[in-house]
Amino acid sequence: MFDPIVAFFQRVFTAIGRGIGLVVAWLAWPFVALGNWYRGRSWIIKGPIALILLALVLFYGYFIWQTQAWTNFDPDYVDRYKLAERKTPAGSPVSGPGATTTGQSADVTPANRAALDAGTSTPESLAVAQLPAGTACQHSAIVDVAADLIDFNVNQNAWISSMLAYKIGFFGLDWDDTPWLDNKASFQRGINQAVRRTAVELVDSLGRVRGTSGINNELQSARGNIQFDEETWYFGISPFGPKTPTPSFYRAAMRDLRKFNVSLGKCDAVFDGRSDNLVEFLDRIASDLGNTSAIIRERSELHNGGWFDTRADDRFWFSFGQLYGYYGILSAAGADFENVVTQRGLTPIYTETMKQLRAALRIQPLIISNGREDGWIMPTHLATMGFYILRVRSNLVEMRDILAR
Questions:
Q1: From which residue to which does the signal peptide run (predicted)?
Q2: How far is CA 27 from CA 23, 30, 31, 33, in A?
């Protein structure tokens, strides 16, 4: 009596199998036809085609490898700087007759003000002139970290955003619009965003005596180079012709930052570690994180397609890279402004902020899901990342308010 039921299911599964076979045959037909055509050609035709196919395999194989191999990725990279052992703020003497650990830089004396106003001297030269011969100054940890982050992005790893395969896309579709091979590019752009913001602040306030001194040439050059667009390859259409690729500009920025730190170590440059500069620096970073939080909120609220949101991974890994960069830069700022942090009682909240940044870097899901916040099947990784960004931003705003009192 079960024979009709069994026969029914047999027909169903047979029909399903036939349908799958037709789909596979339809998908495979172009390749089968090309294979048959290829086998019927002479080696004069087959040879060049084989070389082209081999070149494509190597081209995309290299690209896929570079997008999946995250060389020297380390959420605990801050530990290698041993910032807790530094007791002298950036720019202050650390050796020689003028060595000090108070964090007080040399002041421009009233006697030298006339020369300064007359344009015959700069605050840097006046301050350096007051230091005894043989004095060495503390280099900037912020500059060290920023330069090392650039090195991580373009030397230890390939810069994905300007690779030709990335620019071509997936059959003309931007890789950012697909779920594949774009996570590392977004992560690198997030780090780059943190470095760009830092470079601007180094030029405008940290690397000069604001309002009285000129802009440092090395920092100015670094800012210009790191602001270069992220997608330039060796050749372009608009304008048409050969170009200098993006990584070359970023490497130049890295060299400029290192040159500044060498000058600072010789006391030939200035790092203005006043509390108002720290206020401005924290405020700019808080604003930067606020912009990222708004982007995450918009994506989370309006495009919550769970695992099927192909742009969620871009937003997530950009935010992750930004926090990765700011984790090192803010840790370094705590060392460069050690006197301000200690004197204004910021140590507890500063330490907590670093812990929150490190906690955010533990979120490394294999597949990014942008589910509903009240959903129970698909997780909401974007909302989780947004939560950590807001926690860090809230602490930065609180520190800024404390310093501004």
A1: none
A2: 6, 7, 8, 11
